[in-house]
Amino acid sequence: MTRAAAEAAGEVVVEEDLPPSCDPQTQARWYQLEALERALAGNTLVFLETGAGKTLIAVLLLRRFAHRIRSSPPPSFAVFLVPTVVLVNQQAGVIKEHTDLRVAQFYGDMGVDFWNADTWRGRIDGAEVLVMTPQILLDNLRHSIFRLRDIPLLIFDECHRATGNSPYACILKEFYHPQLNSRPSDSIPTIFGMTASLIARNLALDKYSEEISEFENLMNAKVYTVASESALLQYIPIATTKIVEYDDYIVTSELYSHTIRCLNKLETKVLLYALGMTFCWMQIDYVTLRHPVCNPGIFCSAFCIILSKHNT
After folding, report:
1. What are the respective helix, strand and coil percentages of the chain, to the nearest 5?
2. Tell me, what's the pLDDT at 305?
3. Model confidence over 80-137: pLDDT tens digits?
4. What is the mean pLDDT of the chain?
5. Helix/strand/coil for 150
């Protein structure tokens, strides 16, 4: 399954792990360093395949923002948004392993819905990176517990989820864009997004450019990607699509043949038994007893009709 298909199905997709206890800067590939420079220059959406190391880019960016976070009057912290609890724990662990930033992680099962402003202040006291699911940030912004001006860096993992009335989209529409239009630029976060499936739905080819432009406007960011897939081949395995056509009714299998023989015998017995019964055959005219392996439900339906008539 591709990354796009997995994300569309709501599955957790794990990004490539960084080697433990290594310096991310020395492990970075050319395109990761290029993406980092783009992110430092302005809001950026990194669109790369699974395994290309998007998380490493986020780690490098957090390291570069550490001084700004620490030199700003408290509260000041980066926020790393992820769509699932599993990813909260995973990404928080990566940040702890590869930076010296103090990390706090939050998700719904911690009972955050019942925390007041004082509880939140105590929980985030001293934290420099908050990893959380997006609904938590949205709720805290709506209750004025968090303020965007206290967040120098806002990271969206799986940013393609910023559609409709999703928490990602609501954060941007309700808070980021109004503040963007009314306050100095230094009072809003730098945005960094990561995704392996830039567009989360199927579109006609001529609609993709328009959709990407709208997405960039919503995120107030520009897409970065590696133009040539071949440039990534030396770093990550990329699946090759191969189409094989076959007739699914022609399957050479001993089990298949044995099943067919058994069902044919059963079909013969049922029909012979039915000939001695008096009921309206119109009731099973719609039943097709051919190819029972491909559609055993229809065969069983016919059998049930016969038995029910016999019992009455």
Report:
1. 50, 10, 40
2. 61
3. 999 999 999 999 999 999 999 999 999 999 999 999 999 999 999 999 999 999 999 9
4. 83
5. helix
Of 250, 279, 257, which is closest to residue 302 (Cα–Cα)? 279
**Dist CA 174 CA 200 (whole Å):** 22
| Selected residue with higher pLDDT from 269 and 222 | 222
Domain spans in the chain, listed from the N-terminal domain onward: 3-232, 254-311
Domain 3-232 has CATH 3.40.630.30: no
* Distance of alpha carbon 88 from alpha carbon 155, whole angstroms: 12
**Angle of helix 30-41 versus helix 54-71 axis, rounded to 10:** 40
Mapped onto helix, strand or coil, the DSSP state of residue 103 is strand
CA 139 centroid distance within chain: 21
* DSSP conformation letters of 104-119: EEE-GGGTGGG--HHH
Residues 6+ apart with CB under 8 A from 29: 53, 235
Rounded Cα–Cα distance for residues 153 and 78 (Å): 5
Query: Does residue 16 have a pLDDT over 60?
Result: no
Query: How far is CA 95 from each of CA 32, 49, 56, 212, rounded to the nearest angstrom?
Result: 17, 21, 9, 29
**Alpha-carbon separation of residue 64 from 46, 78, 288 (angstroms):** 17, 12, 68
Average pLDDT of the segment spanning 294-300: 58
Kind of pairing between the strands at 190-195 and 44-47 = parallel
Distance separating alpha carbons of residues 276 and 19, to the nearest angstrom: 74
To the nearest 10°, report the CA torsion of 95, 58, 104, 117: 170
Order of all β-strands in the sheet with 190-195? 103-106, 129-132, 78-81, 153-157, 190-195, 44-47, 222-224
Q: What is the pLDDT of residues 28-45, one digit of tens each?
A: 999 999 999 999 999 999
- Predicted local confidence at residue 243, as pLDDT: 85
